[in-house]
Prior knowledge:
- The protein is an alpha/beta fold.
- It is built from 14 helices and 12 strands.
Amino acid sequence: MKFATKLIHAGIEPDPSTGAIMTPIYQTSTYVQDAPGVHKGYEYARTQNPTRTVLEKNLAALENGTAGICFASGLAATDAILKMLKPGDEVIASNDLYGGSYRLMVRIFQKFGVIPHFVDMTNLEKIQAAINENTRLIWIETPTNPLLRIVDISKVCALADQKGIMTCVDNTFASPYLQKPLDLGADLVIHSATKYLGGHSDTILGAVVASTQELADELHFIQNASGAVPGPMDCFLVLRGIKTLHVRVRQACKNAKDIAQYLKAHPKIKKVHYPGFEDHPGHAIAAKQMKKFGAMVSFELKDDSIEKANLVLSNTRLFSLAESLGGVESLIGHPASMTHGSIPREERIKNGLSDSLIRLSVGIEDIEDLIEDLENALAKV
C-alpha cells in the first residue's frame, strides 16, 4: 500500500455496527463485561479506547513500526520513554533541542538520577566521545528545533546498535510523510501529533511508534500505569488530520522553499536556516533521508537584538505570533522567549540560538500573500 493510501486506510475499517466510514468517537469511561474478565477487548478507557486503538494502528503503519502508543501530549510521550530508564542511566541528546524536552530531562529526570548530556549530534565523533558504560538512550531530533540542523539517523543508529544503546528519533518536524526513522535503524520514533499529524491547531496529542513488540509492551505498560492518555475526541481529530497529511505538507514545503529563498536575498537578514539550501551543512544528509526539506524556516536579523526581532514578530498579519507549528496556517515565533525560554541564555547563545532568531512554521496559504506579509514586517526594522 502506497503512503497516501496508508494515510486514509491503514488500520481503519468502517464501524461494524453502523457502517460509519469515519471512526466513531467512543466517549466512554468504561465497558460492560459479560462476566468478570469476559469482555470484547475493552475494560477501562485509560487502558484501551477503540478510537485510540485505530489511531495507534494507523500511526504504526505510517512509520513502518510494530505498534503505536498514544499519549496526552508530545511531552507525555517523551516522559514515558524516559521512564524506561533507571537511576544512573545516561542520555545523549542534541545541544539544539526543543526546549520542552530539555526542561524535562534537566529539571525533572535529572533529579531522579537520569543524567542527560547535550552534544553537537551533527558530529559523530562528539557522540562517540560522550558514550560510556551508563549510556542507555540516544535522543535524536532532526531537523532540530529551531536551527534546523540535520543529524544522520542511519549513522547514529548504527553506532548505537554496536553499543547496545536504544535510539529514539523525534520526527515531529518532518512527519512520516518526509522521513521514516525506523527504516533508518531507530528503535523508537516520537511525535508531537499536535503538529503536522493533527495539522489544524485544534488538539494536543503525543505518539510513539516502536520497532519491536517488546518495546511496545513496555510503553503500553507505562501508558496505562501513568495514565497520561489522550481522550477519544483528540484521537479522532488526529485521525482526521492524518488523512490530508501528504497534501498539506507537500504544499507547506513548497511555500517554505520560496520563503527561504526570499529571506536569503533580503538585505536585512544575516542568515537563513533551511536544509533545502545546497550550502546548508546538512543538505546532503537531508536529501538522503528526507523526501522534501520540510516547512520550517528560521532566520536571524543583521541587527541581533530582541528589540528588532520584536518589530518583525509584532507586525505580521498572516504569520500569527504563537507557539506550536505544523498547522495549515502560518505561524511566527521567537524561540529565545517562547519555545526555548526554559534553556539558560548562555546555553542558547553557546549553541547558536541568538536573541534575534525568528522561527517560521510555513502554512498552506497563497505564497504571494505570505511573502508580502513578511516584506511589510521587515520594513519596520
